[in-house]
């Protein structure tokens, strides 16, 4: 049986190799070398995928992380800041994961180009934040964008507008991997093109690809040569992920042999975060555990807020020399995420991905820092967008902070229905963003519009039944209200 499986695996690898070589013959001469490197990475992942069967973890071995392996942010903040912050900042580069499209919010093009606050896009806010740091401390922190083939062209066009900002901006591209047919385990692409029948044949392989593509781009070596020691990595849609000087100072002040090579910012779980990856101790190493790796029987235990109290914000501080060392030794160990998809024509495919935080166990002297919730402010939906556009937050130099006028520092729970999913529709339904300073919970479902200067407080639920429409009039104040049926207030 084992012999047969081994034979089958070798056959599948050989067939894949043949198909990839065929695809390479259709590449443009200028792209052949890049595509070959991408395919080398894909082949390594595919090889591991064929070898690994069943869950990659033994649930019985999972333990809570030791006390000292996750430090409270307050403890790190107590150290204060040195007089010379600039010398630490000059050893840092900021990397934003910019591979995603705005499709889930009904937008074309890169997600980072969606306006989130006063006409500023995610990218505008990021540039403003780093420029403010560079000006305030007379420092030179560059911004690095990891684009994908989906976002690269549009992002590069827009970068021209920042030429006069005090931020050096570099870009590099994530790999481009072929989606594979779930049955035949062969690529669905017929050539290297990205249009027509091949439009859905390719994918960027998750943010775990950062290590390989960063190295292959030459940018890793360039930054090391410029004296950079750490990168601060985060998702571009996490508006809370700003450069934290206390964490940076903590990294820079470790003794040489105890230098942290990898810091993961975690924060306390709420009921909204039960699916988020968590930190565990496994085989003596601190390790990220994602819901996809959990055996079905243990999923409820994984989601429990009592056993696993923290989750990964995907704000990471990583040593550049360590990335170089691990990549050159081919020692970056990340679990494979098998992501099943159905293409528009109904074909079932799989894409093999990895997550950037999963490499944590490959680094030395790793640390979790339990940060305030304010460092995790992702905008994944228009419900999130409503929060960050509202008076709950004030903006200063590209950074959003919770308004001091809000009594409770927690974020309200907002759930907007399908009529609000697309940004364009969402904006049409609000004449102005409501006052939400005293809001705890807002649910809106159905055909609902909001007039100017509406205030919502406490728990507000607005449900327009199918075929009905509710117009909340200008100046309305809703406190602990349920509004349903058909409410149309018309001027005559």
From TrEMBL:
GO biological process, one term: glycogen biosynthetic process
Catalytic activity: alpha-D-glucose 1-phosphate + UTP + H(+) = UDP-alpha-D-glucose + diphosphate
Pfam families (UniProt xref): UDPGP
This enzyme's EC code(s): 2.7.7.9
Residues the entry annotates as binding substrate: 207
SUPFAM superfamilies xref list: Nucleotide-diphospho-sugar transferases
Pathway as given in its UniProt record: Glycan biosynthesis; glycogen biosynthesis
Keyword line: Nucleotidyltransferase, Transferase
Residues that, per the record, bind UTP: 111, 174, 206, 237, 380
Keyword Lipoprotein: no
Protein name: UTP--glucose-1-phosphate uridylyltransferase
Gene: LOC113046996
């Amino acid at each position: 049986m084992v012999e047969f499986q081994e034979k089958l695996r070798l056959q599948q690898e050989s067939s894949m190799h043949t198909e990839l070589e065929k695809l390479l013959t259709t590449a443009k001469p200028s792209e052949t070398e890049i595509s070959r490197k991408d395919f080398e990475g894909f082949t390594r992942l595919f090889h591991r995928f064929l070898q690994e069967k069943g869950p990659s973890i033994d649930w019985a071995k999972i333990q809570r992380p030791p006390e000292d392996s996750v430090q409270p942010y307050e403890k790190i903040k107590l150290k204060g800041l040195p007089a010379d912050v600039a010398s630490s900042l000059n050893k840092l580069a900021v990397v934003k994961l910019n591979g995603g499209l705005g499709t889930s919010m009904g937008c074309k093009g890169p997600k980072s180009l969606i306006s989130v606050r006063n006409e500023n896009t995610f990218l505008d806010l990021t540039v403003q934040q780093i420029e403010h740091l560079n000006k305030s401390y007379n420092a030179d922190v560059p911004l690095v964008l990891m684009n994908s083939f989906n976002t690269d062209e549009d992002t590069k066009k827009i970068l021209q507008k920042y030429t006069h900002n005090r931020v050096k901006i570099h870009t590099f591209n994530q790999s481009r991997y072929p989606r594979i047919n779930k049955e035949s385990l062969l690529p669905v692409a017929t050539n290297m093109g990205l249009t027509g029948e091949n439009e859905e044949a390719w994918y960027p392989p998750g943010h775990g690809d950062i290590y390989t593509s960063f190295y292959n781009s030459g940018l890793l070596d360039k930054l090391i040569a410029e004296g950079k020691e750490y990168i601060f990595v985060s998702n571009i849609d996490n508006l809370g992920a700003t450069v934290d000087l206390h964490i940076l100072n903590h990294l820079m002040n470790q003794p040489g042999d105890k230098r942290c090579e990898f810091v993961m910012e975690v924060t306390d779980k709420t009921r909204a975060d039960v699916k988020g990856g968590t930190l565990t101790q496994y085989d003596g190493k601190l390790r990220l555990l994602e819901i996809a790796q959990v055996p079905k029987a243990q999923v409820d235990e994984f989601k429990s807020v009592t056993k696993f109290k923290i989750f990964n914000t995907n704000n990471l501080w990583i040593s550049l020399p360590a990335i170089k060392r691990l990549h050159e030794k081919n020692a970056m160990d990340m679990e494979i995420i098998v992501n099943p998809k159905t293409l528009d024509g109904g074909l079932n495919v799989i894409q093999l991905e990895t997550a950037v935080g999963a490499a944590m166990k490959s680094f030395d002297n790793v640390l979790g820092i339990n940060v305030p919730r304010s460092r995790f402010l992702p905008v994944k939906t228009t419900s999130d967008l409503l929060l960050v556009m509202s008076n709950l937050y004030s903006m200063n130099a590209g950074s959003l902070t919770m308004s001091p006028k809000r009594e409770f520092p927690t974020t309200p729970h907002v759930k907007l229905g399908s009529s609000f999913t697309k940004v364009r529709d969402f904006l049409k339904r609000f004449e102005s963003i409501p006052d939400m300073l005293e809001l705890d919970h807002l649910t809106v479902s159905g055909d609902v519009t909001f007039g100017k200067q509406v205030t919502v407080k406490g728990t507000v639920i607005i449900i327009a039944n199918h075929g009905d429409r509710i117009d909340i009039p200008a100046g309305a104040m809703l406190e602990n209200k349920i509004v349903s049926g058909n409410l149309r207030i018309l001027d005559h």
